[in-house]
Structure formats: C-alpha cells, structure tokens
TrEMBL record:
This is Glycosyl transferase family 1 domain-containing protein. CDD domains: GT4_PimA-like. InterPro entries: Glyco_trans_1 (IPR001296). Pfam families: Glycos_transf_1. It comes from marine sediment metagenome. One of its GO terms (molecular function) is glycosyltransferase activity. Residues 83-201 form the Glycosyl transferase family domain.
Amino acid sequence: MIALQSSREPIAEIFEPVFFEVDYRGGPSEDCYDFVVALRGKKYKRSLSKAGFKGRVYHIYPHIDERMHGRVSDVKVKQFCERFGINDDDKIILTVARLDPIKGQDIAVRALARVAKRFPQVKLVLAGNGSFSSTRRGGLGLPKGVRWLDRLERLASKLGVRQRTIFTRYLTEEELKAAYTRADVVVLPSVLEGFGLTVVEGWIYKS
C-alpha cells in the first residue's frame, strides 16, 4: 500500500521498480506518497532510490495460505494422470510457471535429456499457459507464451525427450493440486525470480 499525503487516505498503487532502471520518470514521488511497501527486497529498494523516491520503504515477504493447498484424493490424481498419460511407475518432475523465457523451462528440458539417460521412467510436466491471468482464455503475454511453447516443443524433439515432456497448458486449481500431489520433485529453473512461490507450494505438498 502507498499512502497519499494530500488526502491522508490510503491509496494502493502498483509500481514495477525493475522498469525504473530504464525510465525513472514512472516512479513514485515523495511529494505524493508517505511510504512504499516493496515485495521484492533490497534490489527494489535501490530501484526506488534511483527513481528519486526518498521516503520510507518497507519490505514485506510473499505469503502462501497453507489452508488453500493440500494433497488431493487418489481419484483426482488418477484423473490427472490419465489425462496426461502419466503411468504409476513414472517419476515426475514438475515445473509450475507461465510459459515465458524468463521462467527457464528450456533449462528443465535440457536437464531432462540428461536425467533420462540414468532414469528411464522420468517425465517432465510443464504446467502453465503463458498467461498472467490464470484463466483458460489467457491474458497478458499469451502470444509470447505460444511462441515459447513452440520453441520448447522443438527443443524437446531435438533432444529426444518430446514423449517425456508434458505441456499441460491451463490447469484448474484442483488439477494443479493433483499435479503437485503426484510430483516426485518440483523444480524452479527461472533465470530471474522475485521469490519463487512454487518452491514453497511444492514444500507444502512434500514434493
């Protein structure tokens, strides 16, 4: 939350300080705001400073409500596995992220090619559809996601692991819970990440 000085009413606005390094003019001004709450730590604080903000900056940590997560029934896991061709004896590596180069799914595919030589029953599940909106229809960044999906499919084919690589695209909340429940390990191969909530989610599911 960012509080407006003139009215003393709390005004919530969202800034992406990472962009301030390119254009400082879009950042918050001390004349307008009493303080800024940053979600991503010291780097964002420095970016705010570069943007010209000299007010107070507070850092809070991302949070996951464990009550919204939890292992699902065997029936739901079975339905998920049947939909995506996952066998009982398969070892599942799960990555949950929108389809975007910054999320590093290509790193996971390359790693799969090496791991499969030693563990022939391994499969990689890439959950995500390139959308910021978490909806079946998709949202911001979807065209980029489509292009990235095509590159990942071609990479998997080139490395000989296309049949081991499962692209789920959009998943409902229950399907995502089933994916976490079935996974043997959750990986986060991002090249840049603010916090990495999916790692914490994987921990909740003991994956």
